[in-house]
Amino acid sequence: MFNKQIPLSLHSNYRIGGPASLFFIATRIEDIVAAVSEAKKLKEPLFILGGGTNLLIPDAGFKGVMLKPAITSLERIEGSRIRVGAGVLVSTLNYFTVRQGLTGLEWSGGLPGTVGGAVYGNAGAFGGEIKDSVVEVLSLDIAGAEPKLIRRTNPECQFSYRNSIFKSRTLEGTDQAAPGYAPPKEIILEVIFQLAPGLSTDINAGVHEKIDYRIARQPLDYPNIGSTFKNIPVTNVPEAVLKQYEHKIKQDPFPVLPTAVLISEAGLKGTKSGGAMISDKHPNFIVNLGGAKSEDVRALAQTIKDTLHQRYGVDLEREVIFL
């Protein structure tokens, strides 16, 4: 049932990454269950691939099963609630809400990736977070001997800043700052959102306002995987640094000092390693200028982390995943 030696660069927004030993795109829940069972039977490592928009894949690829859930159901179920497959692109969801006249997700305009990935990492921007609209998440628990379905309410998802129970369970017991493989515990299948009635024209304008903002301020003309590091909660910033940059503090959704500000102030914009570069348009992005290797990106990320620790006394936490 698996395809062999599929180049993962074709499934990465970065256009970086070697082949997967085994690769499978599953469009139905039963196919996901079958793929997980087969991977266990083969005793192969399993990795769950979403939209490939926040993931750096090694040049050597992945020795195991790369499973891409592609459940793309999308429907209005009752009132202002919608049921969304985890494989639906956030952009597709945005335009569905415009057509349906449902407001609440305008902040996600221009957000790359899938709904499943957004829930996994509690994606957020412009003061909004995916958790704000989630009612229920259906997932497949694959940690035990047999896969089992789990339905969780919003509180049971344990959402926090760029985190959820789905992510924390996977990373539990690992060094989250280090690259490497962490066996998945759950696979998000579908999500129910609670939105509110609104005017389609206003919703469309709100979505496009955020898209235009991203185009103007982010290096979307180069392959990238978004912000490399999380913004820094003000509680984690030394007092002297906080005082110096207090005019730069923003809500995300709580008070943070944007990491891009300190990267820029440290003079790192435009720094290159091989085919990768710290963007001079948005310095928290590391872009692929063409032919970049995963090691080029890792080297620049480490340069940023070390420089900001030495100069400002802050410890950065990665937002993107290094496999």
TrEMBL record:
Its main location: cytoplasm. GO terms for molecular function: FAD binding; UDP-N-acetylmuramate dehydrogenase activity. Belongs to the MurB family. The active site is at R162, S227 (proton donor), E319. It is found in: Cytoplasm. It is an enzyme of class 1 (oxidoreductase). This is UDP-N-acetylenolpyruvoylglucosamine reductase. Pathway: Cell wall biogenesis; peptidoglycan biosynthesis. It catalyses: UDP-N-acetyl-alpha-D-muramate + NADP(+) = UDP-N-acetyl-3-O-(1-carboxyvinyl)-alpha-D-glucosamine + NADPH + H(+). Keywords: Cell cycle, Cell division, Cell shape, Cell wall biogenesis/degradation, Cytoplasm, FAD, Flavoprotein, NADP, Oxidoreductase, Peptidoglycan synthesis. One of its GO terms (cellular component) is cytosol. Its cofactor is FAD. It comes from Candidatus Harrisonbacteria bacterium CG10_big_fil_rev_8_21_14_0_10_49_15. PANTHER family: UDP-N-ACETYLENOLPYRUVOYLGLUCOSAMINE REDUCTASE (PTHR21071). Cell wall formation. InterPro entries: FAD-bd_PCMH (IPR016166), FAD-bd_PCMH-like_sf (IPR036318), FAD-bd_PCMH_sub1 (IPR016167), FAD-bd_PCMH_sub2 (IPR016169), MurB (IPR003170), MurB_C (IPR011601), MurB_C_sf (IPR036635), Oxid_FAD_bind_N (IPR006094). PROSITE patterns: FAD_PCMH. NCBIfam families: murB. Pfam families: FAD_binding_4 (PF01565), MurB_C (PF02873). Its EC number is 1.3.1.98. Residues 15-198 form the FAD-binding PCMH-type domain. GO terms for biological process: cell division; cell wall organization; peptidoglycan biosynthetic process; regulation of cell shape.
